[in-house]
Amino acid sequence: MALQNIGASNRDDAFYRYKMPRMMTKIEGRGNGIKTNVVNMVEIAKALGRPAAYTTKYFGCELGAQSKFDEKNGTSLVNGAHDTSKLAGLLENFIKKYVQCYGCGNPETEILITKTQMLQLKCAACGFLSDVDMRDKLTSFILKNPPEQKKSSKDKKSMRRAEKERLREGEAADEEMRKLKKEAASKKKAATTGTSKDKVLKKKDHSPPRSLSDENDQADSEEDDDDVQWQTDTSREAAEKRMKEQLSAVTAEMVMLSTVEEKMPVAEVKKAPEQVHENGNSKIPENAHEKLVNEIKELLSSGSSPTQLKTALASNSANPQEKMDALFSALFGGTGKGFAKEVIKKKKYLLALMMMQEEAGAPAQMGLLNGIESFCMKASAEAAKEVALVIKGLYDEDILDEDVIVEWYNKGVKSSPVLKNVTPFIEWLQNAESESEEE
């Protein structure tokens, strides 16, 4: 069966992962009883994550014709003879209104019915809640026939818990085996050392007995040692002699230290202590950060290209992370709603600075994510709400990798408001990975 990308905007993307079958129709009957049968409506609706009755009813509402979906037989019928291309166009409109997220365009959404009988689309990727236009005729049909609650997420969570429990039990069993092996090895070692000690004792027992004359000689030597008296000379001359010896030793050490310092380079001796950042990088004061931001703003206002900006910042003494933080402040300072679109629009400047970070040996993607987090912590509430859209947009543009995003998220503080907004996107990433592995 031929497949196509979900959503007209993704039609030419060869690597788009969300696909659905191409629509197949069949004209049935004659005269006033002529009908159009959408043969593979069940497969299409399954790919969209919506009941087939919704799409069938939408066709009827838009065409002003009666429509019916038979649950038992799985047949979708619309009165009248209609072209496949016309129905495919209506299906695209249905996808825009009732499937794709209004924020990020992802088709992995769920229809929610609020207490005030309003329809919303909750995105599993970015967590955005899209308000559906209630003037559409299909909305009343959805309110009367609400979608079934998905149980797959709970099942997946229980499966993940069981898998984690199984891994813990396996690790505990491995640890127990290691302990047993260590105990066996220590017992074996003790046994071998015991036998070697026994052999040594046996050798000592078998050593030839000492003669009486040898014992008498040893006793005489011990007596001679007892007769010797060891005393310290406490006279003034002896004390002065000892002091001179100690002073000569100290001066010798001082001379050695001075020669070592003379051999050291001047740069190492006169090296000034640096302030240390929390993550190990040198920290610049706040006024230096503002100065760097102003410098970048002047470069941008003069029409500098990303390459020129990179060349100009290469000579700056700030570390790569400070440059990235300053770039975000210069590019998006004062931005509220629409922050995600601005980031994608000006991604070339971010890529240029990431290239400079890679040349300096710094982790470029992690630096970009830290820059996003740092900016969103200081930015307005509207900009901070779009942090998931920003990261997803950069992920879709192949600027950020999935492994780096998850690693950055796991290293962060989960109580942070920025990470709380990113949590739905991280869960979506992990779910998508597990589903692709199952497929």
How would you describe this structure to a colleague?
This protein is α+β, with helices and mostly antiparallel strands and 439 residues long. Among the domains are: 3-149, Defensin A-like, CATH 3.30.30.170; 286-438, Serine Threonine Protein Phosphatase 5, Tetratricopeptide repeat (Alpha Horseshoe), CATH 1.25.40. Helices cover 60% and strands 8% of the residues. It is built from 18 helices and 9 strands. It has helices spanning 41-48, 52-63, 84-98, 138-144, 152-205, 212-227, 236-263, 266-269, 286-301, 306-314, 320-332, 339-345, 347-359, 364-378, 381-385, 387-396, 402-411, 417-438; strands at residues 3-5, 19-21, 25-28, 35-38, 67-70, 75-79, 109-113, 119-123, 129-131. The strands form 3 sheets. A 4-stranded antiparallel beta sheet has the order 3-4-6-5, with helices on one face. Strands 7-8-9 form a 3-stranded antiparallel beta sheet, with no helix packed on it. The chain has a two-stranded antiparallel ribbon with strand order 1-2. A hairpin with a 5-residue loop joins strand 7 and strand 8. Helix 11 packs antiparallel against helix 13 and helix 13 (347-359) crosses helix 14. The two termini are 17 Å apart. Mean pLDDT is 78; it is low at 223-228 and 257-283.
Short description:
This protein has 439 residues and is an alpha+beta fold. The chain is built from 18 helices and 9 strands. A 4-stranded antiparallel sheet has the order 3-4-6-5, covered by helices on one side. A 3-stranded antiparallel sheet has the order 7-8-9, with no helix packed on it. A two-stranded antiparallel sheet has the order 1-2.
